[in-house]
Design goal:
With 248 residues, this protein is an alpha/beta fold. The chain has a 7-stranded mixed β-sheet. The two termini are 27 Å apart.
Amino acid sequence: MANNPFSALRLALLKMASSLGGGGARRLPDISAALANPAWPAEWPFSAADFARQDESRDTRFYDTPRLVYHIDEFAVRALTNYYARTLPPKADILDMCSSWVSHLPDDYEAASVTGLGMVAAELDKNPRLTTRVVQDLNMDPTLPFPDDSFDIITNVVSVDYLTRPREIFTEMARVLRPGGSAIMSFSNRCFPTKAINIWLNTSDIEHAFIVGCYFHYAGGYGPPVAQDISPNPGVTDPMYIVRAMKR
């Protein structure tokens, strides 16, 4: 396993910066550049230390108290809901993974079903969009309790940075997605630092997109992942990023 899985990405970003031309100020590449032409390492590039956390106690202990609050600001919330309004197919069967009391779906969106899989039963019970509720700690058991080809869409809102077994989980996601279905991972720059994985805390937003892209790539079963910045007010309010891939 490589000690630095981002060397190829950083080289690509340096080339991108130099291609912007000389003379004037150079802007940082958009987050979509992280996955525009990725140079994937030959093998899974992460080590066990990358998924270590400051607090290694069971997540059920940390999350035992319901948190009925937003973990991103209202502008980022609205940006994500608007993104769903533009991109979700009609009447989809949705798996809201790492779900809580809100799924951020547009009020007028009619899903065929919305299954919420999360850590806290009290939070899931408060979520009016859910038609099915499943309590499960994915870091303890990454096997999704659903048949093959069950869902059209999988969402994960600001929780991908807490997954300690992402390759197993993303493999399971591919199994339960229907062919042509999409998994949508959204994240910001906010987290519970004691529970976020080590490599997430020590990398930038654009590198976070590359990390999530790696999860899709090495799990297999997906088309090329794509990154997108949907931040409503860059540099002013909370950012919001998407990494999305379609099941082949």
